[in-house]
Amino acid sequence: MLKDSKLVIETLGGNIVKDSARPIWLMRQAGRYLPEYHEIRKKSGSFLNLCYNPKLATEVSLQPINRFDFDASIVFSDILVIPDALGQKVDFIEGSGPLLEVIDDIQDLNKLIPSNLDNFLNKLNPVYETIDNLKSKLPKKTTLIGFAGAPWTIITYMLLGKSNQDLNICLNKLNNDEQFTKKIFDLLIYTISEHLIMQIKAGSEAIQIFDSWAGFLQGDDYIKYSLNPTKEIVKNVRLVYPDIPIIGFQKKYKNENNNEKTLLLINDSGIDCISLEETIDKEYILNNLPKNKVIQGCLSSKTLKTGINLEKEIIEILDLFKNVPHIFNLGHGIDKDTPIKNVEFLVKTVREYKR
Ligand code: CP3
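Above: inputs. Below: predicted complex with coproporphyrinogen III.
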């Protein structure tokens, strides 16, 4: 047992023995680039119905495993099940993504605070049932990953209602109302921690925390709203499951530099593994990577979609991370227009590579 790598690599079915194959899975590996996903999606009605239908969500989670034999399976769900389970209205609009009824003030927020945690967890029970199903159906060598969004990223959706809004509006709201801010972070840190703990209890062997919009935050705002809440969640989860491998993910925002912030996430949050986005300065991260941390990533989703320079970029990543524990993945979710043959080529290339 390689205790010092916190077992993330081992749990992903690989190990850091010199000539073994690199483990691989892809963010959003279950989804619209697979024709079999569309079949089930049609049957389920809305996207959230699919997330809350354990039979169909299990089937959809297994689809990429059956096709590509990935080393890990991530449960099919979404980061926005948290506001949904808290009673905020969440819809997914075909072709344009999530649409939420916005939380404007402390009165709106108070309505979401559950009088008892069981009401919240009961709503999410189908996710735990899906994990339980998956656990019994997955090959033993395949690691089961649970996940949640981090508070900041979820709050952007709760306050702005959709993706790609002006995040300054959200930030100003937080910076101008201390009481509101404390309340919403407390609520999310608590419920996200419980949701992750329940996913581990149901059989998840590792968890990933998505803070996709963290790259927008600068300086103290990053520490207050992204790093510290994630750290709290890691601490809460570890109180119950001290050895659970935890993967962190954050994305660069527009032209903001994400390199130092990524190092902060690696060094200060307590995560074991950093899922890198493709635009990061990989050499910088590698040169500053503390011992015993695992790297995940970070092929460009666009390269995988277009196939242009695909082999070259795959090999560059494999070469660059050959002396550290590394899980192959994309820098972000797989694009819905990705040809299946490109994914097949990726898996074959990674599996055939010799360190
Ligand atoms: O990785 C996996 O296969 C697990 C499933 C997963 C989904 N969403 C399924 C999904 C995971 C890990 C997520 C995370 C998620 N969801 C994030 C964080 C990661 C990231 O992408 O930055 C965010 C911000 C969301 C919120 C969300 N959900 C958006 C913005 C959208 C619309 C964008 C889009 O791609 O359509 C979703 C919808 C969604 N979540 C789909 C899937 C498969 C597409 C829904 C459909 O089938 O119509």
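Confidence is low (pLDDT under 50) at residues 1-7.
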